[in-house]
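Worked example
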Amino acid sequence: MTKSIENLKWRYATKNFDPNKNLEPQQLEMLAAAFNLTATSYGLQPCRLIVVQNTDLQHQMVPMAFGQRQVVDAAAVLVICTTAVDADYVRRYFKRVKDIRDTSDEVLQPFVDQLTTKFDAMAVEEVEQWARNQAYITLGTLMNICAQEQIDSCPMEGFIPDKIDGLLGLKAKGLKSVLMLPVGYRSAEDPFADMKKVRLPIEKSVEFIH
């Protein structure tokens, strides 16, 4: 069994974090880098990450997360947000491509035209749903990196986005919270830590076609 698979077996949705254990700054910087390197559709990165390490704010998050204490006991709460994407956003993205890769306009322009046309034709709700889908990709990346680094985490959809947005001042930044990922270290008293994983037999969940 590879180390990567062993680490995935080790991870679980941590219910009880040890509030006395913190993450080092470089660990959070590593998670931020992993978030930034996550694959997204067209490479457009419609997601942003807010790293909350403020006990007062984390306490205020508890009722907004339906009483789930992970948000206050964890060393930090990673809040995955979406941002608005439109034709101008697409143009700015391709300007970065040109600046970084020195790609010619002749090569880039067809892609610019294709994507600006695509996003111009999409309703706001469609774009928001597309961006939320990308947020789940970033969540998966973060959870996997946490497992490989032996950092505990708990993916959360159970919170009131409007309340979190207001608390963290996200609306003024043009952001909407979609997911939260408290991170830190499990409590020795968490009964879920030693429970066996319940998964389908692999032959029931995976099919190889040769």
